[in-house]
Amino acid sequence: MANGKQVIVIGGGVVGLASAWWLLEAGLRVTLLERSPTVGTAASYRNGGQLSYRYVSPLADVGVPKKVMEWLFEKDGPLRFRPEADYRQWRWIARFLKNCNAETNARITAKLLQLGELSRQSLTQLELKLPLSKFNWRNAGKLVVYRSEEAFKAALDKPGVDQNRAVLWGADTARIEPALAHVASKLAGGIFNPGEAVADCYAFCLALEKRIYAHPRFERCMHTAARHIFVDRGRVSAIETDAGWITADHYVLAAGIQSRDLAATANLDLPMYPLKGYSLTAPIGGEHVPPNISVTDFERKTLYARIGNELRIAAMVDLVGENKRIDRRRIASMSRMARETMPDAADYDKAEAWAGLRPATPNGAPIIGPTPYPNLWLNVGHGGLGFTFACGSASLLATLMRGKEPPFELDFLAYKA
After folding, report:
1. Phi/psi zone of residue 189: left (φ > 0), alpha (ψ -120 to 50 degrees), beta?
2. Structurally, how many domains does the chain consist of?
3. Residue 142, domain member (yes or no)
């Protein structure tokens, strides 16, 4: 693709903004299309804040179907399911279950590790233009703790693990992370991975937005909703929006779960489903003992990350369609688990609740690159790893759109009709 070509990036979340930046740096002219008045206010707003480049194993794995049945009957279980009269829900579940085997999980994990490493390198490059301090980036490391001996042993025996990890037993977890002192004696153990980071995704979006707006090749940001992709003679000819028709040489779809319906207007089937997740953001005072390390409670699927002067707690997977309403029972459950796990970490009475829809594929791998239409491109389906993969997937997209060879085979990352 020649320099100076015009590209419309649809989506102003962390993936869309990163895509816009890397395309600008690649020599293209960019218009950003975001339906909300402010960027980064959907799934990017108050996510877990973890940049887990090495902890990228997809949810679909051997043994997960059995665990799902157990979670559905647990009071504070990480999964909730509401059946819908929507074939896309049932098809996604069927495909997810098909991917729940050790071989597929291992192959996709290997691909996601490549994308994670590219993302880490890409963020380092971006640091030259966007200081890490602008979004509370911190090299915290990641500690995954296990409550059961069975889960801990399975993690230790998993092939292809990071050789830099440190294995901790029971009470040793509190020595590396004092915030766990209250529950350390009840833990089977933990695995610590250095080099993982935490940051404020929304602050990253706002800071990157400023850099994009100041870029000499950036044309404009249109705060309007895309409604329809029109195709003529095998190419995308225009996008219908609430503000009228817009055209460009190329188009990038990076609008989270909304990408699914928009792609359907061009007869493209994106195998995505919204996994509703929740977070609590609690202020940290001088009297509190917050975690310095990013912590994942494996069995409870709960993340704890100190971001600036706040504690971010993220958890839950609700398969309830595109319902973004905050379920107060789920929030109460999260608050109860946080108080039990880290009772002195933050002021939970002042915690603010949030819910967002994570656009997930059945196998856990995002979809990046070309479509059957030569001027329509995808950067979608990142699930709960949108912040982690944003810079790497944007860099990969820019490479592909310039007609260059990618740094690794796309394989699971490519769109398949």
Report:
1. left
2. 1
3. yes
**pLDDT digits (tens), the chain, 417 positions:** 667 899 999 999 999 999 999 999 999 999 999 999 999 999 999 999 999 999 898 999 989 999 888 888 888 899 999 999 999 999 999 999 999 999 999 999 999 999 999 999 999 999 999 999 999 999 999 999 999 999 999 889 877 666 788 999 999 999 999 999 999 999 999 999 998 999 999 999 999 999 999 999 999 999 999 999 999 999 999 999 999 999 999 999 999 999 999 999 999 999 999 999 999 999 999 999 999 999 999 999 999 999 999 999 999 999 999 999 999 999 999 999 999 999 999 999 999 999 999 999 999 999 999 999 999 999 999 999 999 999 999 999 999 999 999 999 999 999 998
Distances (CA, A) of 407 to 111, 118, 161, 255, 413: 12, 9, 22, 25, 13
* CA atoms of 82 and 317, how far apart (whole Å): 11
β-strand pairing of 244-246 with 235-241? antiparallel
As a whole number of angstroms, the distance between CA 149 and CA 147 comes to: 7
Look up the CATH number of the domain holding residue 300: 3.30.9.10
The DSSP call for residue 376 is: E
Instruction: Tell me the Cα Rg of the chain.
Output: 21
Strand partners, 31: 8, 220
Answer whether 20's CB lies under 8 Å from 126's CB.
no
What predicted TM-score, i.e. pTM, was given to this entire model? Answer: 0.96
Cα distances (angstroms) measured from residue 154 to each of 101, 157, 188, 190? 14, 5, 12, 12
Q: What is the residue range of 346's domain? A: 61-85+138-197+273-359
Task: Please report whether residue 232 resides in a domain.
Answer: no
Question: Is residue 414 domain-resident?
Answer: no
Does residue 224 form part of some domain? no
